[in-house]
Design goal:
The complex is a heterodimer of chains A (298) and B (201). Chain A has eight helices and eleven strands. Chain A has 298 residues and is of the alpha+beta class. In chain B, α2 (34-41) links the parallel β2 and β3. Classes of the chains: A alpha+beta (298), B alpha/beta (201).
């Protein structure tokens, strides 16, 4: 396959995968939702959970995006430095988004800032948003993330003084979730970034919600804090759609970096119950494996 | 049995609803969100749809061309609180009876619901295909210059729901009551976790 053909082929794969991620939730999210549904007995909770599962079934049957808000597409790339299409990936992903917007279809969400005009194809300045991590090797792993506006609205980051301690992080997480969580379509996946400054903490908080649900931070204290936050937020009991109930979260994940001794940067990102995340691993010969959706046929 | 409201919705129908009730809608439903509200209230532009007795949906759909018309692909609620700044005046000026969205709305909207006999209801968020199959047809679209999500899509719906009444015309506000409960629980939980995460020593 020459380079042109290869580029065409990867564009096609990524367009279909992007559309697919908007239609079917990953298995870990489905399993967690099923578990939380069992734990809710109130009539309103049941109405909501029944609607959620009926909706997923209808999205599957009719091959449509399960939530109308298919977001501004974000890609998180972990690329081998010698991946053959490294230099073309940005163009490939832009084209893939245009194609998915037509074919899936996706809602037109990219509004050119200051121009205040919807571009109509979900691309625009720096959009799709791409985060790069370059590693040794010749393959690439690409995460597709599609978040509605509702679950992006609670997003917040700030820098605490060391005196606030990790206790300050707990307060911040609870303030964000109890103030803005009801509108973000609970049960929520909560990502917390702990780092030096706003941008590093915020980015880590987003990376935290890309982890499979229930995976734990490698540091035992951080893992313990994940569990404590999960248990505590569930005790607050936002319930599905904030109508109150026995649970609030799909999970709490923390990602961290080493930090400056004078600061504790904390970021919170929130994923909604329709947590549309997909992971695909591309080999140098462009054969691929879908890690998030084992059943997927593109 | 399903309780179904039909547009135009009467004041009597509205007064029979209580926060927490689950109802469905037959008739005309018009999408209207941020810019639609802003145009009417801030810019003083006349709405291209007469909303008296009708329902609005805080939603931006995915639609597809279908011959000369349009087909509803996916349409779920968006965060109603974004429209709080405008909704009181919006209810007063348009005569809308049912406002559908997700999450709660604030005191100003609740006051307007009480005064003008209107209610706010929640359609479960993210359930956009479920909602789309309850749309019989898209009758027309207005203000398409705003783009697909912000345009006013005028749809005829059949047993559209479930709709959970969150603000009723007596002024009860389900989410405000829930929020007070959440906040009351929060303090002791934070204190307990904080005791266990004093990692800086």
């Amino acid at each position: 396959m020459d380079k042109r053909e290869a580029q065409r082929s990867l564009t096609d794969i990524m367009a279909r995968f992007t559309g697919y991620v908007g239609k079917r939730l990953p298995q870990d999210v489905l399993d967690k939702l099923a578990q939380l549904r069992e734990g809710e007995q109130s009539p309103l909770s049941r109405v909501v959970y029944d609607s959620m599962f009926e909706n997923l079934e209808a999205a599957d049957r009719l091959d449509r995006p399960c939530c109308q808000d298919t977001g501004v597409i974000q890609y998180f790339i972990t690329a081998g430095a010698s991946f053959p299409l490294l230099g073309e990936l940005r163009e490939i992903l832009g084209d893939a988004v245009r194609e998915a917007t037509r074919e899936a279809p996706l809602r037109h969400n990219a509004v050119e800032t200051f121009v205040e005009k919807n571009t109509g194809d979900n691309t625009g300045t720096r959009v799709p948003w791409i985060e790069w991590d370059i590693v040794p090797g010749d393959g690439a792993t690409i995460e597709v993330y599609m978040a509605g506006g509702g679950c992006s609205l609670p997003g917040a980051a700030k820098v605490l003084m060391p005196a606030a301690g990790y206790e300050g992080i707990v307060q911040f997480v609870f303030d964000v979730i109890t103030s803005y969580g009801v509108n973000a379509c609970p049960p929520l996946l909560v990502g917390v970034g702990v780092s030096t400054s706003v941008e590093t903490a915020a980015m880590l908080s987003k990376k935290a919600i890309l982890r499979p649900i229930g995976t734990r931070h490698p540091n035992p204290q951080a893992a313990e804090m994940e569990l404590l936050l999960e248990k505590g937020l569930n005790e607050v009991g936002l319930g599905p759609q904030g109508l109150s109930g026995n649970s609030t979260v799909l999970g709490v994940h923390i990602e961290s970096s080493a930090r400056h001794p004078s600061t504790i940067g904390v970021g919170v990102s929130v994923g909604c119950w329709a947590h549309r995340r997909g992971t695909i691993r591309i080999a140098p010969d462009l054969s691929y494996e879908i890690l998030s959706h084992k059943e997927a046929v593109l | 049995m399903k309780k179904v409201l039909t547009t135009p919705i009467s004041n009597e129908d509205i007064e029979s609803l209580k926060a927490g009730d689950v109802v469905y809608l037959d008739g005309l439903l018009v999408t209207c969100r941020d810019v639609g509200h802003r145009r009417l209230i801030e810019l003083g532009r006349e709405l291209p749809v007469d909303l008296h007795g009708l329902a609005i949906f805080h939603a931006g759909p995915i639609v597809a061309k279908d011959g000369d018309g349009w087909k509803m692909i996916s349409i779920g609620p968006t965060t109603s609180m974004r429209m709080e700044r405008f909704e009181k005046d919006f209810i007063e000026q348009t005569g809308v009876k049912l406002i559908i969205g997700k999450g709660g709305m604030g005191a100003d909207t609740a006051e307007a619901c009480k005064k003008h006999k209107a209610v706010h209801a929640v359609f479960p968020g993210g359930c956009a295909v479920l909602a789309a199959v309850e749309v019989e047809e898209i009758e027309r679209v207005e203000w398409l210059d705003l783009g697909m999500p912000e345009a006013l899509w005028v749809s005829r719906v059949k047993e559209f729901g479930p709709l959970i009444i969150s603000i009723d015309a007596q002024g009860n506000n389900l989410f405000e009551a829930n929020k007070a409960g959440f906040n009351a629980k929060k303090g002791p939980i934070i204190e307990e976790i904080s005791r266990q995460v004093r990692f800086i020593k």
